[in-house]
Write a structure and sequence with these properties.
Number of helices: 2
Helix content: 25-40%
Number of strands: 2
Strand content: 5-15%
Shape: globular
Radius of gyration: 13 Å
Distance between the termini: 31 Å
Strand order of the largest sheet: 1-2
Structural class: alpha+beta
Length: about 80
């Protein structure tokens, strides 16, 4: 299964059209074609969540709150 398949499944029961207008919905980093072996669910992406995801070798993090809420101005 790849990230695109996971997103389509989620959008089947939570369509992006019903999201809050200001929410940044969808894949925010990575490739839709990447294979998903392990995934992590969380309320918000924090340093602790990232550390645990790396430790558990998760290839996808699904978060209720968007990773990037406001547009980036610099990297």
């Amino acid at each position: 299964m790849n990230i695109n398949s996971v997103l389509k499944y989620i959008e089947g029961w939570a369509p992006p059209q019903i999201a809050w207008q200001k929410d940044n919905v969808g894949l925010q980093a990575g490739s839709l074609n990447r294979s998903v072996d392990n995934l992590m669910l969380c309320l918000e992406v924090t340093d602790k969540v990232l550390s645990e995801a790396v430790k558990k070798k998760c290839s996808l993090i699904i978060s209720h709150h968007p990773l990037l809420f406001s547009p980036l101005k610099k990297i």
